[in-house]
């Protein structure tokens, strides 16, 4: 597999506002886990001087300590927009609270769709009550991510979904999501991880807030039915075609000089797809069998989310006419697959 030059965040500096660039600050929520790495990084975009207009991106989970830290970081500046990349529970729950308090609109692509999931009984979604907490933080000793689909330093497994979040302002690709005298944030629609996933481009600094679409510490699990591997490939290529100088993921460290990083990301996904197709052609008919071979060097606890990514690859390969499902059923985690 192609090696991805993963980067890690040595010290999350929980609850502190950290100046990352002239127009970007970050406050990391203390919700570390195998699902969130060190925690959710909430970004404040705009000037740091008193009275300045700012936008907040991914306010994060409903933790009292994070609310307090955000209010301290905002200070006497004016929040003009609360942007959300997607509706997982480590990103959007604080958005309505902050928007109401600030008198600002929430901004995003739209609601997360409720879809029938034939594999819901096998779901690896931890749910809000299963968040592992600080003792499960992968920490710096785990080092950067490994070559896998969501099996990096702790793995970027999606958390529970915030179906209640519905942005007041819905934006589509290319729309201005927030604008003030010092900055313009433009929407870049990047479906794949979720269908409503939105990145935001900071035009003044040629940087992109990537949410969970691209992270420096791990690849992202693409879990059907809402996660879509074909859409993810297209979104990767869309970001690759841009000229951003920095990527700001919601979890972990920034990615500077992203072109070679993105090339490795895309090559890795293409190699994984080729491995899945080769596995089917060699007679491995179940996802469980494929995961056992393709993810042999990955911790067992991550095999279920890896299975979701294999399923996403198989859905794409079926659409490509290269793989079929035995019987009168659709692609699921327990289906039997064969080469065409």
Helix/strand layout:
Blueprint: E1 18-21, E2 24-28, E3 41-46, E4 53-57, H1 64-74, E5 78-83, H2 95-102, E6 106-108, E7 169-170, E8 176-179, E9 184-189, E10 198-202, E11 207-211, H3 229-240, E12 246-249, E13 255-256, H4 258-281, H5 287-294, H6 303-319, E14 323-325, E15 337-339
Parallel strand pairs: 4-5, 5-6, 6-7, 11-12
Antiparallel strand pairs: 1-2, 2-3, 3-4, 8-9, 9-10, 10-11, 12-13, 14-15
Helix pairs in contact: 3-4, 4-6, 5-6
Q: TL;DR?
A:
It is built from six helices and 15 strands. The chain has 340 residues and is α/β, with parallel strands linked by helices. Strand 3 (41-46) and strand 4 (53-57) form a beta hairpin.
Task: Summarize this structure as a short list of keywords or feature phrases.
340 residues; Metallo-beta-lactamase, Chain A
């Amino acid at each position: 597999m192609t090696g991805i030059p993963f980067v890690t965040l040595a010290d999350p500096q929980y609850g502190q506002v950290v100046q990352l660039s002239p127009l970007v600050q970050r406050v990391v929520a203390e919700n570390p886990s195998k699902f969130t790495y060190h925690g959710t990084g909430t970004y404040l975009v705009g000037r740091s001087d008193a009275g300045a207009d700012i936008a907040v991106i991914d306010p994060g989970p409903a933790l009292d300590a994070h609310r307090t830290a955000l209010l301290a970081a905002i200070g006497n500046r004016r929040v003009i927009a609360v942007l959300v990349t997607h509706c997982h529970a480590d990103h959007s729950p604080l958005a309505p609270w902050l928007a109401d308090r600030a008198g600002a609109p929430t901004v995003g692509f739209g609601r997360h769709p409720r879809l029938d999931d034939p594999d819901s009984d096998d779901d690896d979604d931890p749910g809000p009550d299963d968040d592992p907490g600080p003792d499960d933080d992968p920490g710096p000793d785990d080092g950067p991510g490994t070559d896998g689909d969501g099996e990096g330093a702790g793995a970027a497994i999606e958390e529970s979904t915030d179906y209640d979040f519905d942005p007041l302002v819905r934006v589509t690709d290319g729309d201005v999501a927030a604008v003030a005298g010092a900055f313009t944030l433009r929407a870049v629609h990047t479906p794949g991880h979720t269908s409503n996933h939105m990145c935001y481009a900071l035009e003044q600094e040629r940087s992109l807030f990537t949410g969970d679409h691209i992270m420096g510490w791990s690849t992202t699990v693409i879990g059907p039915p809402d996660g879509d591997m074909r859409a993810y490939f297209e979104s990767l290529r869309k970001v690759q075609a841009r000229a951003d100088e920095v990527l700001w993921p919601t979890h972990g460290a920034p990615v500077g000089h992203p072109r070679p990083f993105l090339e490795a990301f895309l090559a890795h996904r293409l190699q994984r797809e080729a491995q899945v197709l080769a596995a089917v052609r060699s007679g491995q008919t179940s996802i469980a069998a494929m995961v056992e071979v393709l993810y042999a060097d990955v911790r067992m606890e991550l095999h279920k989310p890896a299975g979701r990514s294999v399923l996403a690859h198989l859905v794409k390969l079926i659409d490509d006419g290269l793989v079929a499902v035995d019987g009168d059923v659709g692609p699921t985690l327990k289906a039997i697959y064969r080469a065409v």
